[in-house]
Amino acid sequence: MSITRTATRSARPLQLFYTPLRTQSFNMSSTTAGQDTPTFGLKERQPSTEEKQLIDDVLQLYKLNPISSAYARYAENAKFHDPIGIAEGLNSIKAQFNSMPSIFSKSEVKGMKVLENPEVKPPSVQFALSQLYTFKAGNMDKLVNSKITLHVDPSTNQITQHDEEWDGKPNSTGEDGFFGKLNEMRKKFTANTVEKMADTRPKDQQN
């Protein structure tokens, strides 16, 4: 791996850079504590054994436990896209999730529902996630409801794209006109900056 900065060296500047972005973006979300996990107009279905195992591994990342078995689910050229960042390549994805423990003191899964969507065909899977984050700064809690789509290559069973849409709202892209292009450039810059500051080793491989 090209980035092997220690967590103690990178955590403080990373927290100063990334916490305001997450706080501002989370405050724009309309989710509130105490509500049931929404399905965004789709029906809930039961996951297969393979889907459950895949989702359980990916949820380790959301629970501030970025371990090797979770990252093994991703292809080397995988892409992650959420409202504040576009991470291209596994190393960049590791940086995004490895940075989360420097921002949040706790992250709990409050609800998860696998969704029935004819546009998402197995082995790809889509699910709704209610995640309660506790910021280190100010000890503030924020519940975020997301629609998450894991695009899986059937030939390798690895994730090639991971889309996270807060409140089920589509992420803007360069195809959304001038401002969409500007936002895409900003999100790539954010992901690249985080990658330069974060330790990208899985948690179980750090000293």
TrEMBL record:
Composition-biased stretches (Polar residues): 27-38
Region (Disordered): 27-48, 159-178
Superkingdom field: Eukaryota
PANTHER family recorded: NUCLEAR TRANSPORT FACTOR 2 (NTF2) FAMILY PROTEIN
Protein name per the record: Uncharacterized protein
Species this protein is from: Kockovaella imperatae
